[in-house]
Design a protein that fits this description.
about 300 residues, alpha/beta, Rossmann fold, 2 domains, three-stranded parallel beta sheet, 10 helices, about 40% helix, globular, binds NADPH dihydro-nicotinamide-adenine-dinucleotide phosphate, THF_DH/CycHdrlase_NAD-bd_dom, multifunctional enzyme, NADP, one-carbon metabolism, amino-acid biosynthesis
């Protein structure tokens, strides 16, 4: 048996297409253009790549993109002043502060300074609380993308056993909340979990969000399970030549694909869905801000 490959790249393209359609209608019918402000502090190379990609895709779906690049030594006071300005700017419907921030800045303080209704990353404490209590919130983009792929594949997730490996605030915990919201029986595993292989073997759905290259081998996977690999790890690719690297997930794709029922590849799985969901969240924030019906 070979697993069905869940094509996140193609799925993300359909999400972006839908968003673009709604954006065009908002402009035509209401004269409103959704706007996303992205704030980057410092010059972390990976963050620069993400920010560029986010800006490009924002413009491609017809939204306004506002990029704010600040020096690495920007003070907390100046960063908070910028966030305050963006909170009060009616052209800006979504605000994203690219993480990680340089060490002298308090991430919690900065994220919680964002107006929760513009917090398209869903990291503000209000949105975390709303999600945890099953109320309407801004949902973190990566887990939202994973949930969309799972719903698309399974239809209903009700009653399925799900294991989320990783308990970070940006992926693991909100992922577990979303799966619980869809009536899965959820286990959250982490670095202190005893007998992780056994825990994973029970699961109909495995979401791996650890950041350890290929740590989940195929023989941990229950036959027919759905595997969502969030991990993005760069490893040496000696087969491509000295100094070359390639991206792999947290799951050993080659062995897992022989056991799973469906699996997301890395790259081309969860990654593309994350930015597509950011755009969808910005559209949602814009509709809410203007008292308009939210797109599904
Ligand atoms: P964090 O480092 O914040 O969290 C990693 C989690 O994995 C922690 O909860 C940690 O446990 C757990 N963990 C570490 N080692 C083990 C182990 N041996 N066994 C079981 N659990 C373990 O990472 P993130 O959640 O931010 O990201 C996870 C991965 O997802 C990374 O590769 C990241 O690059 C990727 N990512 C991908 C995105 C995308 O768009 N595709 C977006 C965001 C992240 P403990 O809490 O006990 O330390």
């Amino acid at each position: 048996m070979t697993a069905q490959i869940i094509d996140g790249k193609a799925f993300a393209a359909t999400v972006r297409e839908k968003v673009a359609g709604h954006v065009a209608r908002l402009k035509d019918e209401h004269g409103i253009t959704p706007g996303l402000a992205v704030v980057l502090v410092g010059e972390d190379p990976a963050s620069q790549v993400y920010v560029r990609s986010k800006g490009k895709q924002t413009v491609e779906v017809g939204m306004n993109s506002f990029e704010h690049k600040l020096d690495a030594d920007t003070s907390e006071k100046d960063l908070l002043a910028l966030i305050d300005k963006l909170n009060n700017d009616p052209q800006v419907h979504g605000i994203l502060v690219q993480l990680p921030l340089p060490g002298h800045l308090n991430e919690d303080l900065v994220i919680n300074a964002i107006d929760p209704s513009k917090d398209v990353d869903g990291f503000h404490i209000s949105n975390v609380g709303l999600l945890g209590t099953g109320q309407k919130s801004m949902v973190p983009c990566t887990p939202l993308g994973c949930l969309m792929m799972l719903r698309d594949h399974h239809g209903s997730l009700s009653g399925l056993d799900a294991v989320v490996i990783g308990r970070s605030n940006i992926v693991g915990k909100p992922m577990a909340q979303l799966l619980l919201g869809d009536s899965c029986t959820v286990t959250i595993a982490h670095s202190r979990t005893k007998d992780l292989p056994d825990v994973v073997r029970r699961a109909d759905i495995v979401v791996a969000a650890v950041g350890r290259a290929e740590m989940v081998p195929g023989d941990w996977i229950k036959p027919g399970a759905t595997v969502i690999d969030v991990g993005i790890n760069r490893i040496d690719a000696l087969e491509k030549g000295e100094g070359k690297t390639r991206l792999v997930g947290d799951v050993q794709f080659d062995s897992a694909v022989k056991v799973a029922g469906a699996i997301t590849p890395v790259p081309g799985g969860v990654g593309p869905m994350t930015i597509a969901c950011l755009l969808a969240n910005t559209l949602t924030a814009c509709c809410r801000a203007n008292g308009l019906v939210e797109p599904e």
